[in-house]
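Worked example 4.2. Below are the chains of a multi-component assembly; read each line carefully before continuing.
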Amino acid sequence: MTAERRTQLLVASSPVLAVLAALAAGAAVIAAIGEDPLAIYTLLFRQAFGTGYGLGQTLFRATPLIFGGLSVALAFRAGLFNIGGEGQMLLGGLAAALVGAYAPLPALALLPAALLAAAAAGGAWGAIPGMLKARFGAHEVINTIMLNFIALSLVGWLGHRLFETATVRTREIAAGAVLPRLGAWLPALRSAPVNASLLIALLIAAALAALLFRTRLGYELRAVGLNAPGAEYGGISIGRTQALAMTLAGAVAGLGGVNFVLGYKHYFELGFTGGAGFMGIAVALLGRNSPLGVIIAALFFGALAYGGLVVNQRVPRELIEVLEALVILFAISARPLLERVARRWA
Amino acid sequence: MSAGVVLLFLAAALRISVPYALASIGSCFSERGGVVCIALEGILLTSALGYTLGAYATGNAYAGLLAALAAGIATAWLHAEVTVRFRADQITSGLGINLLAAGLTRFGLVRVFHSSSNSPRVEGFADLPLGPLAHLPVLGSLIASPLVLLLLVLLPLSHALLFRTAFGLRLRATGERPEAGATLGLSVTRIRFAGVLLCGAFASLGGAWLASEQHSFTDGMTGGRGYIALAAMIVGKWDPLGAAAACLLFGAAEALQIVLQGSAFPSELLQALPYAVTMLVLAGFIGRAVAPKAVGVPYDPEQA
Amino acid sequence: MRAPAVQLHEITRRFGALTANDRVSCEIASGEIHALVGENGAGKSTLMHQLFGLLQPDSGEIRIDGRATRIADPAAAMALGFGMVHQHFMLVDTLTVAENVVLGREGAGAFGFFDRARAEREVAELGARYGLAVDPQARIARLSVGAQQRVEILKALARGARVLILDEPTAVLTPQEADELFVVLRALRAGGTSIVFITHKLTEVKALADRVTVMRAGRVVGSAPAEELSVEHIAEWMVGRVPAPLNERSSAAPGAPQIVCEQLDVRDDRGLPAIRGVSLSVRAGEIVGVAGVEGNGQHELLEAIAGLRPARAGRILIAGHVCTGGARAHRAAGLAHIPSDRLHRGLVPDFTLAENLMLGQQRGPRSGRGLWFGGSSMRAHALELLKAFDVRPVSPALQARRLSGGNQQKLIAARELSCAAQAILAAHPTRGVDLGAIDFLHRRLLAERDAGRAVLLISSELSELLALSDRIVVLYEGRIVHETTPAHTDERTLGLSMTGRSATGAHEALA
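Applying the procedure described above to all three chains together yields the following structure tokens:
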């Protein structure tokens, strides 16, 4: 095996190594508070994957993470860092809830309209930093962070009119806008909240994979992300491509809002995202910005989220959050570290 | 509006600005050295818990302050370790550290205080005996607070440190063009570490202020203040004086919002003001904010 | 104080599979100007980076006054009396001249404050002593390139450099600035400082150096006192052969103009005029060469014709079409472009070879069907091109970054010369490429001309321009100052007209 091949292999395995390192660090903490790490982890993953209901819960939590991860991954492929998934998802969910509750549409048109509204709202919120970048060169990282907060203020303001009295939620959507639970078709899932949003997420993942690797637009998008001056040389407009990528990324994150709004509670509620838009960054990072990788990483984080609840009796579930953060930090440190190790061997 | 209301408003604006200013000044050091400090939020959070633990254990606010510094600097050190030593992506590291801080502080809250929401009441800082100065309107009660006095002293000092000392020169050179310093025998690693740790120290004072003012630690109590401080630093053009001024502006917007609450005015939109201003500055509509050229770029000597 | 004698003994340094320095030995005597000569990629900079502690040799040793010495980092090198002026200046744009010079050795003023006034005084004194005029209070960003270089030299002198290494110092200078630099360097030598001078311009070597060491492909091919060597002799060492006479002139008469610039004005990155009122026409079936010292507008001219930089005034016509807008419009009109910087512009290094062969043609019929991209036809097309242009290895799925420089250049040529464009821009097509590839690329360009294409060739290698061009124009300070044909000129005459002196005057001076 050549030194170069060895470097590639090492670097490719860095997400797995990062997860193992984080689990090891978590094990140390679990042991420190007097529990058996192995037993806790076994319990966690058995609950998350071992029963139909548990799997359904894991998948339910993985669904918005897939949307969030795909959104970050898509922007990243075009050389942009979308930290705005949280705001995009929030507004997407609100738009879906409003259309679902108020739009005077026939039942058949209501669901597509609600989905479209979610994508459009998220897309618009993604287009803003995209266009600011294209037009003024304004850095999208700060802008997307700012827009997350502006989205919160916006929802707070709109809430005066929209929320049901003394609550922070909107009116319930019409039956025609509901995304059915998968348990309706797969009895094994029982009453788990996983719903048709998951199928939409998988569909989007496949569509993005095709877009990125099988279309001319995808080629241009990747060229901009990998070497912008080279793309410009090839006649590709960097600004237009990045603005488009950011809009699409926003639309994908916006669609993520339907998992809760159309598929679970059937109304919009403040704080419903539970940080899924934000965690999309970790998902994309661990999934190395590939659609399939994103799905796998989302399943892992979904399992942690649900499993964390289950083991809460013995280990505070806050530990799971720590674990998630450690995965991020190990993942970004592992690659430079492994490259250095490999360089030393060579 | 009566004079009394105006005075109340001013006092509130100043009070709100204190933690912003401390964190914002700190981030100038990190970013001028070339390290993006989105981790500000996490540093505020861990140092706030640090203060609470220290003050709870000893009953002494100054012990709390020391604990806040220890916790905040440790958090900043982690950020420096990941971004400078391992040369990892600075933005992702910051976000990861914020997540870690959220999880760790909640974990700490549960383990130590057996509550997932808040700590018991702890001591705050006693006012300093300032004599007649204490009777100044608005300012009197504010500068009697040791941390505010410290801020007032540190503000000109931090500006001088950045722009008038050899350390500041090296730090700014490293953030603009690390190769320039490196080929003159300076250690980019050491200088960037210093910048990030200084940032941690300043932000820790902000965390200590938050916890001491509230006399407790509550889950997620920083509520995005680290991000506002970061925005203020951009609006203030990476200069401690400018950053502090921007914090005052942001603090005023927040105070106005409190004053206007309950009125017909949409105060939530006022809440968005700092963020909107920051976006306008970034787009070049208000002034021009030029970041240090090498900020966000890991320095790899083998590729220089 | 006498400069130490420096001996590099059997230095070897590898980068992955590439051996940049292969058992290189070289001696720099105290107080001499030593020219280190070779083509791009010969290993000159790598060697000097080891002397300055930026890189460590894999084997071999550095001896200073006869003693083997390890130079761990630039700080150690400076302590030993070395100073280096890098090809890309190591200056902080936002700081002043004085701040840049004293950076790292500021000295403590009152209360630990940095004493700016004292630093400015010191820098002014130092400048006066060595005849290096700069304003200590000026910000670097506002200085000319020549002045920035003087700051770099001051930085080294302020640290007591006794051995000064200059990496291609004249590449970015105007002739006047270069002359001024030579005066300074001679004065430094008179004061006992040793100077290592990396260059590939032979006229400079003769004008300045006491001793010449020539490198080629990582090895030293010869070293001798400058007075014992002729320019031709050095050139032969550099290139490894007498430049092959490729002068197979095209027999057919040139056709219609394919690349036309009319009264073109173009600005550089700093917004200063770089091309002033240039009119130029390249006809089908001819190669027009552009000669000039780097930084005289070639880069901006090229980018404007390629559609990568807007023209402030004037028109560009490609194959008869007036082109405005970006690179896409220029390509659509019929332009192919081999760019000067292959990794920055010409390739997406992380793309596969097949994907790279589509760059610029990603919307064309070969890259797929309808909206779809890729597929078996693209792979087949890639295989065909890789074979035709002898790109090795022939594996369409390989990442372009894994190719050698020569093969990357052939990959770009394969793409650009296969798209049937009527107009071809070729910038430094053989820079940093091995000899076999150079020959191959030269022959391909001649074949394109013979097939009736118009080629605009920009190169810093005069031998290349003379061998390939049907006509040669000389750019100086953004204007065309001279036009000639290879039959009526030679390297020396061209070199003189590149310095802005009139060609007839140059002829007289030589006669």
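Take a moment to check your reading of the output against the notes. Chain C is about 35% helix and 25% strand. The longest helix of chain C spans residues 175-190.
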